[in-house]
Amino acid sequence: MTQRLHLPHRRTSIAKGPEDRPGLGARVYVVQRTGAVAVALFLLLFAVLGFASGQAFFSTRGQSVLGMSSNGLLSTLSVVVAVVLLAAAVRSPRTASTVMLVLGPLFLLSAFVNAIVIGTRLNWLAFEVSNVIFSVVVGLPMLLIGAYGRIGSHLPPDSPYAHPDTDDAEVVDERPSTPEEVAAEEAMREAEIAVVQHTATPDQRARVEAMAHVHHRADRRRVWMELDATARDRARHDGTSPARRTTLLHPRAGRRVPRRRG
Fold first, then answer.
1. Which of 5, 18, 50, 60 has the fewest CB atoms within 10 Å, measured from its CB?
2. Residue range 147-151: average pLDDT?
3. Distance in Å from the first CA to the final CA of the chain
4. Which residues are paired to 247 by β-bridges?
5. What H or E segment, with its residue span, contains residue 254?
6. Residue 69 three-state SS
């Protein structure tokens, strides 16, 4: 009679970004990307039909396209804006949101400016009242979609643009906590000042150069204390003290002997 051994299956988890994780800003990203693509496709359709109508490029009285007036310049601008929106949507929803936050106010500004020049020689885009309404109808939703889940005092809980409070456990305290570390900090500061003032000893210069390879405060202090420990071990092995020494005249032999001074 054989027994089957059930081995536990290991589940491998693949780290996913916030754009791929469902429930974490998925709705916000979908709305932003879909809005950018929808506006881009409509502008492309408008531009293609405008080019097909054989309109003049700089005409102030354009051809009727989808209930609006258009000329060659307006069709070209529509293609440029559509390509920018599609490229932003392909790149990332965040990029699409940023582009729509820029283009939305530009559409509204275009509606205001072109409403003033309708019927004049400055009407280079051949705008009519329907075009002004279209610019407002498109510009305002683009602004709202770009700001959706991103701008506001109360962002949705699943918004990837919300900034949760930083966990206190992630904050690393690099301040010295022991008397030895405090003494090392003071010695480090004195050595760095001496190097800047060109009054440092060879040992201070060597230590400052060794600390230059690390960037965090705790790591620099660790390097300094390791050099202190190495100096003490070397002095203990040589039978001398790492303290500064001066020479005095021996009272009997008339020769100089080292005298330790703290």
1. 5
2. 80
3. 83
4. 258
5. none
6. strand
